[in-house]
Amino acid sequence: MMSIEQIEKIVREAVEDVAGIQSLQNDISLVDRSLAIPPACFLYIFDIIESKTKLPVYDILKNSNHEVMTIRNMTTALYELETRPR
Fold it and tell me: What CATH number is associated with residue 59?
């Protein structure tokens, strides 16, 4: 099982690799216009996260609103998926 720190590292690295954004604050929305991440990039970001965590990223999106799109909230949502009983 992955720790919350490991999941955060994977999320940060995916955003950095795809969008080139480094030192992103935990509570900045990834869909904020100031970051200028093209919508298509999120497909690649989610694919990287899903392949590295083996967690269904879609599950955190289908039951959430735009507020899940921060490093902190996405990490927390993925950690909850990781730790839920299967």
Answer: 1.10.1200
